[in-house]
Specification:
Length: 664
């Protein structure tokens, strides 16, 4: 396999088709990924620098993200999350909590502003310029998917700019996003905030961001605790010509974008004796690009001209189609004398010199991953496909080969994800199907140890499973024995993923009443519908008394779907007992974040130690190894938890399980 661009790597989530222990990669082979290591170092520097300024925000049960941009406590966020005048709690990465109030909120552009009430030595991220972003530019997301979790901390994701101007006028990036990320920052490779997270679509590559320049443009309105209409404040610029989207034939003066999204955009009038007329722009010209970016829709043309104006450029490099040929024009722009440093003394927030410190390009970014293919032949021996049968259903997973210390051993051990391995287990190895037997299981970590009565090549030594955790932002590879592997970055601290979603499901709505648990509604999606009615009281689970809803929820979370439980209940004053098999918790399906391609793992939480990364694993790709890009074994993929997060068990957890099983 040949990877030719970082864009294709991050878009597809692929890197390599295998991996080996880091001890088997020599200096020459490591040098082949030198440029990728350079990009990794840049990512790590940004993560260290700006993570403290990325904060979680709560009000009641809801949670979202924000980024502090001034010592005075102003924090940028999303308009759909921030409500003017509402009181919030802001939690920093160091655990400190501050009270804050919602200021300006604009739902159309989707920008919101918070003000911390009593700021004290706050970390600050610098505001960049969204008008400077380019297609293919690497970007970093640091926010709180699923809401704030102090033990886990912020979650890092890496992506690139897919569209400078998306269909709705926002920026589109490939940094994965889900509820809880709203309002979180998107950083450039200088560690400057260039956008905040707004919304997603069904595709994993469709993550919309609000450009930070919008906050500058409407700052005077944002610092007030009220909502406003952008059209009442800013009408756009007169560039000396008019254009229209050809599919709708709706003429509009150039200015703010609207819903008019024709497939092509034509010039409909040019002011006589104007600078644009002198530059050569003519009626009938059809836009192709502006400053090197695609300009084929009304929104693209409008926003790209706006970006050039914001950057105080004297002209924009425009390519138009005229009589079937492309024509290049240096299009003059109106003089921009806007003073963005509206706060006296706060120049670091609202600079008036947008190009004073441009983003330094990553050297050879289009070819940066091609040398990694040098390692291809070495990186395909440590993982295999596993098949089995469970509850009359075929299952599939990956397994990681364990290197045996003894030369006299004629069998091989493998580690996989236990909940995906049932009976009649087999592995695929060198175009052969080999039977495997279960040696041991670890239900707490969802691990299974398998044995094949044949000595397999490759494998990971137990000594290589005792490495220290990597750092957030470090590049990771998850190889696959047959297909393209997955690329990601180490996203979080090592943390405990409490069992909240993958425990056994009963299907009841309950409340505390008279010291007992009252069932006030029965779901049609769970097993309770066959045994209980609204108005019943549950008093015991497997002989254990429960009196509060949270006690019942905690008890049920200790069981897996399919486990049998005996429950004692009261109906109309009469006690009765039932025995039932717990079900699988259904996805609510109401939010588009729940419908991503591949879906979630059935067992996706309830782990004592995991770390998060953003590789786009399918559930059946769990059980395989995770490596740094220089081949160091870091752990085993154990779950696809959500749209943004895959979970892996650290190497030491895997080592402890294997050693314990061998000692039995």
């Amino acid at each position: 396999m040949k990877v030719t661009s970082i864009a294709s790597l991050l878009l597809s989530g692929c890197v390599l088709t295998g991996c080996v222990s880091h001890t088997e990669i020599n200096v020459e082979q490591f040098a082949a990924v030198g440029e990728q290591k350079q990009l990794e170092r840049s990512v790590l520097e940004v993560v260290r620098k700006v993570t403290p300024a990325s904060v979680s925000v709560t009000a009641g049960q809801g949670g979202f993200s924000a980024v502090i941009v001034s010592p005075e406590g102003y924090a940028l966020s999303a308009g759909h999350a921030v409500k003017p005048g509402t009181k919030y709690t802001v939690t920093l990465a160091d655990g400190r909590e501050f009270k804050a109030v919602g200021l300006g909120s604009e739902p159309t552009i989707d920008m919101g502003l918070l003000k911390i009430s009593e700021p004290d030595n706050l970390p600050v991220a610098e505001m960049g310029w969204s008008a400077t972003v380019k297609s293919g530019q690497p970007v970093i997301s640091i926010s709180h998917p699923g809401g704030g979790d102090q033990e886990r901390g912020t979650v890092v994701r890496l992506g690139y700019i897919a569209d400078v101007v998306a269909s709705n006028g926002m920026i589109r990036s490939t940094c994965l996003m889900e509820p809880g990320d709203s309002g979180g920052p998107l950083f450039d490779m200088e560690g400057r905030v260039i956008a905040v997270h707004s919304q997603i679509a069904a595709s994993l590559d469709d993550n919309k961001e609000v450009g930070v320049d919008n906050f500058r443009r409407f700052w005077d309105q944002m610092v007030k605790a009220e909502s406003f209409k952008p059209s009442d404040v800013y009408q756009g610029q007169d560039y000396g010509f008019e254009f229209e989207a050809t599919s709708t034939a709706r003429k509009q003066r150039s200015g703010r974008p609207n819903s008019n999204r024709g497939q092509r955009v034509d010039v409909t009038s040019v002011e006589e004796s104007s600078p644009v007329a002198a530059a050569g722009l003519k009626v009938g010209d059809r836009f192709e690009s502006i400053n090197g970016e695609r300009a084929r829709t009304y929104v693209e043309v409008t926003m790209l001209l706006e970006n050039a104006y914001t950057l105080q450029q004297s002209h924009a490099d425009v390519v138009v189609e005229r009589d079937g040929e492309e024509v290049s024009i240096k299009l003059p722009l109106p003089e921009n004398t806007a003073a963005y440093n509206a706060w006296s003394g706060d120049v670091q927030i609202l600079q008036s010199e947008p190009l004073s410190r441009p983003v330094n390009p990553v050297a050879g970014i289009d070819e940066i991953l091609e040398p990694v293919a040098v390692l291809e032949d070495l990186l395909d021996d440590n993982t295999v496909e596993v098949s089995s049968e469970k509850n009359d259903t075929s299952t599939a997973a990956l397994a990681t080969i364990i290197k045996r210390d003894s030369w006299f051993s004629f069998s091989t051990l493998l580690v996989s994800k236990s909940s995906l391995v049932g009976e009649n287990v087999a592995i695929e190895y060198q175009d052969q199907t080999l039977p495997a037997e279960v040696v041991s299981r670890d239900d707490a970590n969802d691990l299974v140890l398998l044995k094949v009565n044949r000595k397999l090549k490759g494998g990971i030594s137990l000594e290589d499973m005792e490495t220290a955790p990597a750092e957030r932002g470090e590049f990771l590879m998850s190889p696959h024995p047959k297909y393209s592997g997955r690329f990601g970055v180490w996203g979080s601290k090592v943390f405990t993923a409490d069992k909240r979603e993958s425990g056994g499901f009963l299907g009841v709505f309950m409340e505390e009443s008279e010291g007992k648990i009252l069932l006030n509604q029965i779901s049609e999606d769970g097993p309770a519908k066959d045994f209980f009615k609204a108005g019943d009281f549950i008093v015991k689970v497997n002989g254990k008394a429960v009196t509060k809803p949270k006690e019942l929820a905690k008890e049920l979370s200790s069981y897996e779907p399919g486990d049998m439980v005996k429950m004692e209940a009261v109906r109309d004053g009469e006690t009765f007992s039932v025995e039932l098999a717990l079900g699988v918790r259904p996805d609510n399906g109401k939010h588009i974040a729940e419908t991503f391609r591949g879906g979630k793992s059935l067992r996706r939480d309830g782990f004592e130690k995991v770390f998060s990364h953003d590789a786009r694993l399918r559930p059946d790709e769990c059980g395989g190894p995770v490596y740094s890009i220089d081949g160091e074994f870091l752990g085993i993929n154990i779950a696809r938890h959500s749209r943004t997060r895959s979970y892996a068990l650290p190497a030491e957890v895997v080592a402890e399980f294997v050693k314990g099983a061998q000692a039995e």
